[in-house]
Amino acid sequence: MIKFLTTASIFASVASTVILIGCPIAAAQPTPNSSGQTYADAKEQLEQAGLTVIVSTTVGDKLPWAECLVVRQQPRPGPLAGKKNEIDRTKVLVSLRCSPEQPSPR
């Protein structure tokens, strides 16, 4: 019985290693950080890096998107079309603050 359990655990370890090695994953490129930039500047920088920018949320409506500040950036991984077991890492979600800067209370 012990020999069977040892053989089974070795087989499971080898099988999981083969599965992990056999799954191709697209190489992750570093994503430029656009937090604190205007949406226009951030979008240009991210698109030059080959990324698609998606606005996920906005707070306020007093500024046009081009002038809004990026307050958060997050990758949006998803399945790569037509490629089994590969991840599409070309989309980035951004959150925008579209209200004028408020003076700090003193």
UniProtKB/TrEMBL annotation:
<feature type="domain" description="PASTA">
    <location>
        <begin position="29"/>
        <end position="96"/>
    </location>
</feature>
<keyword id="KW-0732">Signal</keyword>
<dbReference type="InterPro" id="IPR005543">
    <property type="entry name" value="PASTA_dom"/>
</dbReference>
<protein>
    <submittedName>
        <fullName>PASTA domain-containing protein</fullName>
    </submittedName>
</protein>
<feature type="signal peptide">
    <location>
        <begin position="1"/>
        <end position="27"/>
    </location>
</feature>
<dbReference type="Pfam" id="PF03793">
    <property type="entry name" value="PASTA"/>
</dbReference>
